[in-house]
## 1
Amino acid sequence: MALPTLEGPQVRLRPPAPADYDLLFGWYNDPEVIAPFDRFTADTYASFREGVESAPDDPASLAPRFVVELREDGRVVGLVGYYRAHPVLTLTDVWYVLGDTTVRGRGLGREAVGLLVDFLFHDQPLERVGATTDVENGPSSRLLEGLGFRKEGTIRAGLFHHARWHDVAVYGVTRSEWAERPRSV
Ligand SMILES: CC(C)(COP(=O)(O)OP(=O)(O)OC[C@H]1O[C@@H](n2cnc3c(N)ncnc32)[C@H](O)[C@@H]1OP(=O)(O)O)[C@@H](O)C(=O)NCCC(=O)NCCS
């Protein structure tokens, strides 16, 4: 199933193309991009490419489903994805990374995730979209809260990275909350 292109005021989300793979794989192998809040798990270039290309047919895939492109100049600055997050419960979680650290803090991450959540509620019969984030990841929590996600709880010691266990905040927004949220972002 081919994903569409999603247009926002500042960014555009579009499916990754082979010409993007070197940049994206570089981000996956750069600890500075995600540290200190998580770690990527790409193995080889071949497995990365295979993951990206098989993602459209795999609801549980953690591979990026869209790149985030700046509308002003077409530069790729990030990537976002979503995945079925539980084998039994109907949980779909989103994730997001601005690999280009120079453009962080300008509202682009929030805009990109907003476009993604809009798309998911439009495209799929979901009643809730979720996200999890290391409790120490302030920018990620603020991004979600600014979009209207509510913190639903904390998983203790849910994520191992950088040599220790980390607590993880669980966020969610329901379809009706999303429909009724103020449209300033
Ligand atoms: C999380 C991430 C995508 C946020 O993207 P961004 O475009 O920089 O964020 P935005 O500019 O949309 O800002 C979102 C909120 O975070 C806040 N924020 C952004 N950078 C911040 C920083 N360095 N420190 C504290 N708060 C920050 C903003 O002030 C804003 O909150 P507010 O509107 O309540 O003031 C980006 O920081 C990133 O790629 N981080 C590394 C990957 C990651 O942690 N992903 C999430 C894994 S769960």
Note: The chain is about 30% helix and 30% strand.
## 2
Amino acid sequence: MDSLFVNKQPRLTFDRVINCNYVQLVKCCLCHGLVVDPVGCANCDRITCSVCIHNFHSTQSEPKCPYGCTTYIKSSCPKPNSIVLDTLKITCQYKANGCDAVLSYNDYTSHEIDCHYQLRNCPGCEQDIIKKDFEQHCDQCPYVSIVCDQCSSTFQRKDTDSHIVAVCLRVQLHQQNSQIEELKVKESEQQTKMDLMEEKLQKNEVFWLEFYNTTTRIRNMLDG
Ligand SMILES: [Zn+2]
Ligand SMILES: [Zn+2]
Ligand SMILES: [Zn+2]
Ligand SMILES: [Zn+2]
Ligand SMILES: [Zn+2]
């Protein structure tokens, strides 16, 4: 047995197994954990994790059996080992976060993918938050960035008050100023229109005045 090779961290530790009576049948000699995705040696019928044996062989020119057989021929997990694996009850890897689930050897992986007790990193405070509390946390976390619905600028939730006082009001003032500018432009346009109309009226007035003068003159001539 190649004693130099030991996988430091088993993927599945025995403290997660509630009812393990046949440890030797389900233990990987390379990582010393419960086998994950087990494969056997066709000679000795003993099993290892498929990742562990792959790593073990990657350093060897000729693949050896980690249990000491001179040649290694990979086989599927032998029946007795599978039967013991099927009886195991395994706790969820997120037990420390509050998950009480107890799972069979074949189900624990799919449970853990969806487990509500796994951690997620908050983009605001960068703390790990349990998945089931994540949404609520993000709705309240003072360090999460939010967008002001008034002025569209971004700031951390904790700065909301100071934003409204300092930045947003300034932005709103700026917006109001530009609205005032717009109004002024409109106003001067209207003024120009009014000037034109007045000019027209004045021209009309001159016309009518001349007309009146002419008719008066004609009438005077006729009367005279
Ligand atoms: Zn292993
Ligand atoms: Zn062997
Ligand atoms: Zn769980
Ligand atoms: Zn947070
Ligand atoms: Zn704002």
Note: The chain has six helices and nine strands.
